[in-house]
Design goal:
Layout (H helix, E strand, L loop, with lengths): L3 E2 L4 E5 L6 E7 L9 H11 L16 E3 L3 E2 L2 E2 L4 E6 L21 H8 L15 H19 L2 E9 L2 E2 L10 H5 L8 H16 L6 E8 L13 H10 L4 E6 L10 H4 L3 E4 L2 E4 L7 E2 L2 E2 L4 E7 L9 E4 L5 E4 L10 H27 L5
Antiparallel strand pairs: 1-2, 2-3, 3-7, 4-7, 5-6, 8-9, 8-10, 10-16, 11-16, 12-13, 14-15, 17-18
């Protein structure tokens, strides 16, 4: 099983949905940076369950503890172990589902691949696994912010067929995003999205959505062509998240409907450097950051586990009617915001460290 991400900044996540705890080991964090749990907790708190009646009612404080890698509040350059205890565990909710693979869930494929699986809450395929990613990403984000002034902000741009108007990616803040339960910064659209999620929740159903993310102040030169282009690494990171089904950058699929004369980003002088007048490239050209904001979108499918009765079969092929128990989000996109931001930070710090290593002249 692959549970490690990164080349120089390496993150290994561990834990299942209903085991004693989940977390991550971070190897390659630069030394000397001030770091305590207070730097990590805000993003975990934004991700945690039970935040509103639109999310899973599972109650977890998701308090992180740093077990290694720091002394007197500074990173040592040694592996950092991060642990969050699971407290509101209910493996008994999944008794029936141990013998019935949930439609469109990872139950079937995990069982077929490994011959065994953690049936309680989906195990490693559960979104609870992302706690380790968010914790590790919060550390990465602090270093990126201190080193380059990088700002990463994601927001909900669509729930089902409800799409938000275009947002000013140069100015949008997390405070504006968090002002609404559904984390869409447009108030009118947020109200419609909230009503839609409540509608599917009452119907014991689920709905999908799209997140948009901007990374500002990304320095020129990040990305390792040809196979580790910046957009390729971002796509890999985002599509490794549970329930993701699509990724695009800059103009994305919409760009296919434009002509080159419309789509090209003309260069202009911006202070002491060259920049582009438009940003259909999404801040990446040739797989390398060009100094403009990196802008991308991630599509999330409707949650597979729903309370509505579904006609399916058990592992023996016998017809059954499955009415899933357990606690699940009717729409994952509001809580996925800090997860997407954290994954972006993990990619950017790894790319930045590789570029810095290339530019460092050894004095020996």
């Amino acid at each position: 099983m692959s549970s490690t991400l990164g080349t120089l900044y390496r993150v290994t996540t561990f834990g299942e949905s209903h085991c004693k705890g989940v977390g991550a080991i971070v190897d390659g964090c630069p030394s000397g940076m001030e770091l305590t749990e207070a730097d990590i907790q805000p993003q975990l708190s934004r991700r945690r369950p039970g935040q509103s009646d639109l999310s899973t009612p599972r109650q977890e404080a998701d308090q992180v503890t740093i077990y290694s890698g720091t002394e007197f509040g500074r990173t040592l350059g040694t592996p950092i172990m991060l642990l969050v205890n699971n407290k509101d565990q209910r493996p008994q909710d999944y008794g029936e589902m141990s013998q019935i693979p949930r439609p469109s869930h990872a139950d079937f494929t995990y069982q077929m691949k490994y011959g065994i699986r953690a049936s309680s809450g989906g195990g490693r395929s559960s979104a609870r696994e992302t706690i380790g990613r968010v914790a590790a990403g919060a550390i990465a984000e602090k270093w990126l912010r201190q080193t380059y002034g990088i700002e990463i902000v994601a927001w909900v741009s669509a729930v089902g067929d409800i799409e938000a108007p275009e947002v000013d990616a140069l100015r949008i803040s997390r405070a504006e995003v968090d002002a609404h339960i559904v984390r869409c910064p447009d108030a009118a659209t947020a109200a419609r999205m909230e009503a839609r999620i409540k509608e599917v929740l009452e119907a014991k159903d689920s709905t999908g959505g799209i997140l948009t993310c901007v990374c500002r102040n990304v320095p020129i030169g990040l990305g390792e062509p040809v196979f580790d282009k910046l957009e390729a690494r971002l796509a890999h990171a985002m599509l490794s998240l549970p329930a993701t089904k699509g990724f695009d950058v800059g103009s994305g699929f919409a760009g296919t409907r434009m002509r080159g004369s419309e789509h090209n980003d003309p260069f202009i002088r911006k202070g002491e450097r060259l920049g582009t007048r438009t940003n259909y490239s999404g801040g990446i050209q040739g797989g390398i950051s060009n100094g403009e904001p990196v802008l991308f979108r991630v599509a999330f499918k409707p949650v597979a586990t729903i309370g509505m009765a579904q006609e399916t079969v058990d592992f023996d092929g016998e017809d059954v009617s499955l009415q899933a128990k357990g606690r699940h989000d009717p729409c994952v996109v509001p809580r996925a915001i800090p997860i997407v931001e954290s994954m972006a930070a993990l990619v950017l710090i790894d790319m930045a460290l590789q570029q810095r290593a290339r530019q460092t002249v050894c004095p020996f």
